[in-house]
Amino acid sequence: MADWSFLTNHARVLLCIAHDPGARLRDIAASLGITERSAHGIVTDLVRAGYVVKERDGRRNRYQIQADLPLPEPGTQAPAIGEVLALLLGDEVATAST
What we know:
The protein is α+β, with helices and mostly antiparallel strands.
């Protein structure tokens, strides 16, 4: 098996959040094979960039992906995040997170 991934960790975290908007950082980290600290940093990056909105739900966080935002690819007419997630996960998961 290759020691590299086709998708970046940021994309993989987005996929985890799209699949389970209530996922804990610990669960995201474990499913991706990264540290919880790395997962926290990636989620923080995504929140700061506006791609994810974090809301408190009791003692936990819930995440909402801003599916209408374009991919951060300079110089291209990139599709929206939601379109890419729909392609990778299936329409029902990506549209449920919008």
